[in-house]
Amino acid sequence: MILPIYAYGEPVLRKKTVDIDKNYPELDQLIKNMFDTLYASHGIGLAAPQIGLNIRLFIIDATPLAEDEDYQDIKEDLENNGQKIFINPKIIKREGELWKFNEGCLSIPDIREDIKRPEIITIEYYNENWVKKTETFKDIRARIIQHEYDHIEGILFTDLLSPLKKKLIKRKLEDISKGKIQVDYKIKFHSR
Fold first, then answer.
1. CATH number at residue 36
2. What is the C-alpha to C-alpha distance for residues 153 and 147, in angstroms, rounded to an integer?
3. Could you read off the pLDDT of 15-47 as tens digits, one per residue?
């Protein structure tokens, strides 16, 4: 089932989320719905707050990037290991150079900005089978994971902008929160 994505201005996007356990109701169906929603909106990552849930869960699917010429050196890995589920994740290390990349967000349509993030992360999480994992990512997945991780911490990519950039996009953000924007996927605006 395709769920509406909560847009900028929805209070749930600003809350730090809570851990879940193995008995979380219908978790398998929730994860399936999140992937359905992700694909319907042509995204590569989706966090639970973006669908209105205040829980520590996010998904990514970087496999579409395998066709991008910028990622040919990791094409096979993206094709075989691009889809991931992160339950109760905790980033335990961020390292490497700060890497500038133009980011966007399904909850903040039509705004893209350069964001600097560390190039390497190590994250601890449970997968969908409740197997605890610790993995290090040093490619585009590190970027996607950090973006989605910020969502479960109540942080949006626009929070990482300079004061000047924030001022420049303030009107666009207000328009998004008021529903004054068109998108080609299901979206829920705060004012509606």
1. 3.90.45.10
2. 10
3. 999 999 999 999 999 999 999 999 999 999 999
